[in-house]
């Protein structure tokens, strides 16, 4: 059975870790309204009162380590917190942090004293649950070899949720609030493509701009800095485009890689089809913050029947 709570000894180690300082924490307000439970109340209502859950749409607030000061008694003082945290006074919050890269959390009331806001470290500290992605994708890819260094790789790639593969990318896929920023990226990339002549018809630049401007709410995970699958942004019979965080897989411009492209077939006698290709990183596109990048890769070897398959899959037209 998976362990969900720290032992008493482990709690003392965590408390000392917090006392030693410089531990960033994330606070999320909880729904802690406990209305009287009558005979007509459902079991779900009772559970809501006993186990508070994050308010719908609640935004986690991250606090730097220097703003968090713990004491031997278990009191945790929040020093000079931002205005957004001051609004948590008198409310129950979920407190999340990493201890030796392991995600932990506890619930506490935020109380206001003459010294400012404070929390109380409870007896029960929980492990952040590991959320396993069990989704079956119609298409995946994996890097299994780096040609220049002759190095074996095992890097999984899955479709990015912000776009639909094997359909012509459309500008309307980009969230409206991001379109002005995306347009600035597009103008820069188009000018570069005119000089370098390496972007083909350039349709892949739409998901590239979408990915670089997309903001995703960061959530604490069960393990800090876990390597996540690389996102697949675009695929056709000439190229495949990936998106990733800078701290993840570092694809090198001009480098050649071996890939396995895997299709999960829903119809027909064959359940799956794997294509083995090599590709070269044709162009790297970076965001202005230096936190994300996209790698436009063109195939350097591809069987003719596989090229036909990808063409017909991407265009819904017969390969001529």
Distance between the termini: 57 Å
How is the largest sheet built, in terms of strand order?
11-12-13-14-17-16-15
Biggest pleated sheet: 7 strands, mixed, barrel
Instruction: Report the average pLDDT across residues.
Output: 86
The shape is elongated
Beta-strand portion reads 25-35%
Low-confidence stretches: 32-53
Number of strands: 17
Helix content: 10-25%
Secondary-structure element series: HEHEEEEHEEEEEEEHHEEEEEH
- Helix count, per DSSP? 6
Describe how the helices and strands are arranged.
Blueprint: H1 8-20, E1 25-31, H2 43-50, E2 53-54, E3 61-63, E4 68-70, E5 75-78, H3 83-86, E6 92-99, E7 102-109, E8 111-113, E9 116-120, E10 126-127, E11 139-146, E12 151-159, H4 179-196, H5 205-213, E13 230-235, E14 239-245, E15 256-264, E16 272-286, E17 292-301, H6 304-315
Helix pairs in contact: 4-5
Can you walk me through this structure?
This protein has a seven-stranded mixed barrel. It is built from six helices and 17 strands. Helix 4 packs across helix 5. By secondary structure, the protein is an alpha+beta fold. It has helices at 8-20, 43-50, 83-86, 179-196, 205-213, 304-315; strands at residues 25-31, 53-54, 61-63, 68-70, 75-78, 92-99, 102-109, 111-113, 116-120, 126-127, 139-146, 151-159, 230-235, 239-245, 256-264, 272-286, 292-301. Helix content is 20%, strand content 34%.
